[in-house]
Amino acid sequence: MTPLAFRRFAVLLALLLAAGAAAAANRLQIAPDDDIDLANGWAAYQAMDYARALALYRKAAEREQRVAQFNLAVMLIAGEGAPPDPQQGIAWLRKSADNGLARAQYSLAVFYERGEHVPRSLVEATAWFLKAAEQGWRDAQVSVATQYFLGRGAPKDYKLAAKWYERAAEQGDEGACYIIAAMYEHGDGVERDLAHAFYWYSQAAAFGDPAARIKARELAERLRRS
C-alpha cells in the first residue's frame, strides 16, 4: 500500500470511529412498536406527556418487552418524564440487549466504548458490537470490523475485519465500501482480487466519494491491460 493510500485508509478508519459514536447518539431514540402499552406510550411521548410515556414503557418493560425496555432506558438516561437516572437506564438497556434487541446491543457497545455511564471496556464493546452485527445492524458491522482491524477489544484479525466491512458494504455503507475495496486491492484479510476491488471502489464512488472514483478508474485501466 502506498503512503498516500495508507493515509487515506487511516483517515477513513478515524472517520468511521467518529461516525460510529455519532450514529449511536442519533439512534438512542424512542422506538415505536405494535404492543398496546408501547403504542400508547409512543402516543404519549409524541404528545410530550413524558411522565405517562415513561409509566407505560415501564409497565411493558416489566413484562420483558424488549423495545419497551430500550425506550425506558432512553428516557431514564435522558431524564425525560423523571430526573435522569443513568444507572437504572443502563440496567434496562442491558435487559433489552440481553433479550436480543440489536439497537440496544449496539447502544450498549457504544457506552462501553466511550466509558459513558459504565466503566470503559473495549472487550465488552466489541462483544456487544458483534452481537448486533450478527443480527444485521449495519453500524455495528462497521464498528466490529474496525475493532478487529485495529485490534481494539479483540486480537487484530484482518480476515474478520474484511468479513464485517463487506457485510456493511453490502448494506450500503460508503466508508465500508472503500475499505473493503482497499483490502481486496492489497490482499489484506482476503485473497487479492482486483475485480472485487474495482466493484467496491465503484460502489463507494456511486455514493460520491471522489477518491473512490479515482481508484475505480485506475483499477479499470489495470484490469483492461491485464
Q: What does this protein look like?
A:
Helix 11 (194-206) runs antiparallel to helix 12. The protein has helices at residues 3-27, 36-46, 50-61, 66-78, 86-98, 102-114, 122-134, 138-150, 158-170, 174-186, 194-206, 210-225. Helices cover 74% and strands 0% of the residues. By secondary structure, it is an all-alpha fold.
How would you concisely characterize the structure shown here?
The protein has helices at 3-27, 36-46, 50-61, 66-78, 86-98, 102-114, 122-134, 138-150, 158-170, 174-186, 194-206, 210-225. It is mostly helical and 226 residues long.
Strand content: under 5%
Percent of residues in helical segments?
over 70%
Largest sheet: none
Mean pLDDT: 90
Say how many strands there are.
0
Radius of gyration: 20 Å
Any low-confidence stretches, pLDDT <50, length ≥5? none
Task: Calculate the terminal CA-CA distance, rounded to whole Å.
Answer: 20 Å
Shape: elongated
**H/E series:** HHHHHHHHHHHH
Query: Please, how many helices?
Result: 12
Structural class call reads mainly alpha
Descriptive labels:
elongated, mainly alpha, 226 residues, 74% helix
Chart the SSEs and their pairings:
Layout: H1 3-27, H2 36-46, H3 50-61, H4 66-78, H5 86-98, H6 102-114, H7 122-134, H8 138-150, H9 158-170, H10 174-186, H11 194-206, H12 210-225
Helix pairs in contact: 1-6, 1-8, 1-10, 2-3, 3-4, 4-5, 5-6, 6-7, 7-8, 8-9, 9-10, 10-11, 11-12
